[in-house]
Design goal:
The protein is α/β, with parallel strands linked by helices. It contains three helices and eight strands, in the order βαββββαβββα. It starts with 5 loop residues before the first strand and ends with a helix.
Amino acid sequence: MRVEPHLLFDGRCREAFQIYAATLGGKLVAALTYGDTPMSAQTPAEWRDKIAHARLDIGAGLILGADAPPGRYQAPVGSSLVIEVDTQAEAERIFSALADKGTIEMPLQETFWSHGFGTCTDRFGISWMINHAKPLELAASATQERAR
């Protein structure tokens, strides 16, 4: 079993997935439009070039997405996508790219569990957490030290 996020957009799924592919080193393997589906005849003409199904492969994971049909989009709330990275430079690069034209909730900074952790909402309304984790034993010892 796998859990895979599915993101809804307000008509900008293609743009978002192109930015995510470039930022996260992923490969856009599907970008099916409403006009390419059996729903084409029932889809307003101005919406036929919008994305009905997109798939972005990123390493061993993937992100799915679509443009919500007209009048059905709601801004996401109460969830974030977490990106775990291996280096601080990678954390800084990804955080900066995703925060560009978005909102930073917590600047990328050291925490007791992470060399660099930050949260932002990108220009498409998607919330991200970027984490360059410390080894668990370092995070645990920092927590124990604070408890003393």
